[in-house]
């Protein structure tokens, strides 16, 4: 199954700050956006937030079940986007054809006791199917991957596009914005500062210890060694906190929907020509030995315009990065091999 996983204007972002907070500019464009997995716990609130974005002209919702109802519900909200629901495997091509941006929260959510490896066994095939359909009918779209485990699903998507001859590394993104908004929230709580003015750069991957918040670069912040260790761990494993609190009823759906919307809104701003749009994302780059690595990215009309350097890291952060790289490499390899070995 695919179901899984705001003033109205994005705040301006500093040089390489990764915080993204708002809904989109009111300047109208004609973007066509699809949400794949639109009936799920992430997909429904994400679709609602996208409906509120006046830069979207058409919003296509795809899932195995329930999407016509979700689309009918959202269509009553008085914003410009025309919402259409597509249901069932036979309609995925129609849902994706000609889209500018395809957002993918499809897959099963994490449950108590599940690891991201467990998720891989279920979600890998789903993501592969979506990538194949995208390559066929929307080869020039920007693809925003939310489906976990992102450290492997993004390489899966890339490998499928490569096989189809349509891969453009500037247009494939793993959405790691949830790590950023958690970091902003937790750091502001710890420091007693305004969360709306807190910008934490989070790099690496999107799973456990591969998530690396650069707390040494937070302007004006001061952390004790214990606070530094506790904050880093909480940012890395915030998802476990939500899974446990929901007591088997789901994972981080609402915060992920918000994060997914925020990144989509930033990308839409850049696609229509706005300058200096920066957000963290898991993209192909050469910053490290890992083929994909989350870093601050300047977005432009063609997707990735520039991947920014990580800047000065503390000794603790450098050690964490060194430890994370083997995992990032192994998880990317796992995704690539899944596609290569698929029948």
UniProtKB/TrEMBL annotation:
What keywords appear on the UniProt entry? NAD, Oxidoreductase, Tricarboxylic acid cycle
Any idea where the Lactate/malate dehydrogenase C-terminal domain is?
176-339
Q: Which GO terms describe its biological process?
A: malate metabolic process; tricarboxylic acid cycle
Q: Where does NAD(+) bind?
A: 37-43, 63, 123, 146-148, 256
Ranges for domain Lactate/malate dehydrogenase N-terminal: 32-174
One GO molecular-function entry: L-malate dehydrogenase (NAD+) activity
Q: Which reaction does it catalyse?
A: (S)-malate + NAD(+) = oxaloacetate + NADH + H(+)
Q: Does the keyword Membrane apply?
A: no
Cite the EC number.
1.1.1.37
Q: Which residues bind substrate?
A: 110, 116, 148, 182
Q: Is-annotated flag, keyword Ubl conjugation?
A: no
Pfam families for the chain: Ldh_1_C, Ldh_1_N
The cross-references to InterPro entries, in alphabetical order and at most eight, read: L-lactate/malate_DH, Lactate/malate_DH_C, Lactate/malate_DH_N, Lactate_DH/Glyco_Ohase_4_C, Malate_DH_AS, Malate_DH_type1, NAD(P)-bd_dom_sf
Return the broad EC class: oxidoreductase
Q: Which residues does the Swiss-Prot or TrEMBL record annotate as the active site?
A: 206
- GO terms under cellular component: cytoplasm
Q: Which family does it belong to?
A: Belongs to the LDH/MDH superfamily. MDH type 1 family.
Q: How does it assemble?
A: Homodimer.
Which protein, by its recorded name, is this?
Answer: Malate dehydrogenase
